[in-house]
Amino acid sequence: MAAECIGAKEDAHEADDAPEDEFEVTLESLLAAAPGFAQRVTLALCLSNASDAVETLSLGFALPFLSWDWQGLVAASVFLGMLAGGCLAGYLTETYGPKRLLVQMLYLEAVAALATSGVGGPWQLAGGRFVSGLAIGAAVPPIFGLAEELLFPRQRRLRSLSLIASSFIFGSLLVSLLAWLCLANNLGWRVFYACTGVVPMLNAALVSSWVPESPSFLQRQGRRAELVLELRRLAPNGAFDVAGMAGGAFKVAQEANHLPSEEVPGLKPLLQWPLRPVALRLGTICFSIAFAWYGLSTWLLKLFEEVGLEHRYLAAVAYALSGVPGCVASVLLLRCLQPWRLLAFWLLCTSLSCLSISLIESGAQGPLLAAACVCFFNSVSTGVFNVLTTVWGAPFSPSLRPFALGALSVALRVGSICAQFVDSALLSSHKVPEMTLLPA
User: CB within 8 A of 369, min separation 6: which ones?
Assistant: First the structure.
């Protein structure tokens, strides 16, 4: 097994006058010696993304119970925090490591949720939500960066990335059920927020146990002893014993990137050829889908109230579940379609769903038709998120990936923030026909 995992090529070393104790560890072959590893990592990262969904969408359920002013600012505060977290994500990842940063941010989400349950005014609530958003924005790049690096082969990685993105559905369903149990039974929004804080706290412990630190990060930092421990942890059956006991130099072989990039980490290479076109394209898509989806999801109960829909919490649960068809379809279609083509297809469907919402007319069937249309919108936009997360980290090298994902997260948050102020202005004007244009 050690011979399979470690390419100790003595002939090549002699030809190149390299040291005889130099080893190259290929992660793909090493992880093949760790059964169940990919499943554990995928599950832990799925639950981490679901925790982000719980904290992101929780405010939308509490807003109808608040009589405070400045609700638009309060709604935007979590996305402002995400924007700040996305800006800092690249630097924090390169400083602390993706796994350590993810665990810390999950704990910070839990603390912010518990603190939110005790606030006494709109500014305190906005501050609590800002801190929660800061943690979410900094957590997203490590979640997808670790998946890009640790999951093999490529087809499994695509399916796992799609599942991780789809876990947002589970988070939205979980927060909808918590709102139904706490708010519909008059337990109060403070109890509701205290319950949401338990979710990221449990997931932080799971990530600590199941997800290793990024080998490429430890290698770039020169932290050889920690790298040895992580690689031994990946292959507990002794596949790494040769390199671990040799005491010589070794390196972790990286998978070839689709596009070349600078070796020096930072944002500057993203603005240069050949990465600039793909970075701008991905950034535009991120802004557009975030403006549509977060704009509708945050103000969902307000929308149902305006159109006169009864059983709003039940409709919110149905809205969360409506993402499942889009999730399943994305995973199945990735087997036969290229991700970029599938992304274009889902974007077209999302545009058509937005148009269908804008054409709804008032009447006896208006509320039910509105609920059906927003559920269709959620299903196809879920497909956009799922496929987007399979392609947004692939063009970038491991050293650039944290900065690239952080920049794309910033585009997501800017779109989300713009949607909150636009939607708040539309709702305050009480113009229902114009309000149906929210996702556009």
Answer: 360
Token pair of 215 as six digits: 């080998």
Among candidates 50, 10, 282, 348, which has minimal Cα distance to 176? 50
Q: pTM for the complete prediction?
A: 0.72
How does pLDDT run across 111-168, given as a tens digit for each residue?
999 999 888 888 888 899 999 999 998 998 899 889 888 887 777 788 888 888 888 8
Residue 24 bridge partners (DSSP) = 251
Interatomic CA distance for residues 303 and 377, integer angstroms? 14
- Listing DSSP states for 405-427 in one string gives HHHHHHHHHHHHHHHHHHHHHHH
Other CB atoms within 10 A of residue 434 CB? 13
DSSP 284-342: HHHHHHHHHHHHHHHTHHHHHHHTT-SSHHHHHHHHHHTHHHHHHHHHHHTTTS-HHHH
Q: Any idea what the Cα angle at residue 284 is, between residues 280 and 290, rounded to 5°?
A: 140
The three-state secondary structure class of 436 is: coil
Q: What are the tokens at 7?
A: 């390419």
Helix (H, G, I), strand (E, B) or coil at 65: helix
- Helical (H) or strand (E) element with 48: helix 37-62
Kindly report each contact of residues 254-263 with a partner whose C-beta sits within 8 Å and lies 24 or more positions away, as own/partner. Answer: 254/216, 254/397, 254/398, 255/27, 255/28, 257/394, 257/395, 257/396, 257/397, 258/394, 258/395, 259/395, 259/396, 261/395, 261/396, 261/397, 261/400, 262/400, 263/397, 263/399
Concatenating the DSSP letter of every residue in 332-391 gives HHTTTS-HHHHHHHHHHHHHHHHHHHHT---STTHHHHHHHHHHHHHHHHHHHHHHHHHH
Angle formed at CA 27 by CA 22 and CA 29, multiple of 5 degrees: 95
* Sequence-distant (≥ 6) Cβ neighbours of residue 68 within 8 angstroms: 74, 121, 122, 125
